[in-house]
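This week, look over our next protein:
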Amino acid sequence: MKKFATLILLALILSPLISAFGVSNFYYGSNPLRMNPCETKEIMFLLQNMVGNQDFDARAEIITGGEIARISDSGKYEVLLGMKDVPVRVTVRIPEKDKPGKKYEIKLGITATPRAASGMVSLAQGTGAIVPVEIIG
C-alpha cells in the first residue's frame, strides 16, 4: 500500500511536466527523400505543442547529415500552447560526385525549454526526427 501511495504522489508531482511537444516530417523509412546529384531542396520539419499548459522556446540543430543539410534560418522557434505546424526549414544539397544508390541520414535534434514563471525551475526536453535520403539517377 505504501508503494502505491508513493506512485500516486509521484504521478501528481510530475503531471505538470507532461506535454505533447513534438516534431514531424514528411519523410521516413519507406518514403525517403529522393534527390539527384547536384540537386538542392528545402524540406520542412514541423513543430507542435498541442497538449499541456506551457509555451516553449525551441532550438533546432542538425545532429547527423551536416555534410548535406543546414538549417535555413536562425534555428530558434517560439512554440506556444496550441500551435502546430511551426516550420523548421532545412536546405539539403547533394554533392555532384555522389552516385545513385548512396544514402544519407539527416537527424534533426530539438531542445524545447518551457517558458517558466520567474523563479521557477524548468526542465528542457529533447526530441527529434530523422529523414532518410536516397540518391537516385
Remarks:
- Residues 22 and 38 are 32 Å apart (CA to CA).
- The longest helix spans residues 2-14.
- The chain has one helix and nine strands.
- The first strand starts at residue 21 and ends at 25.
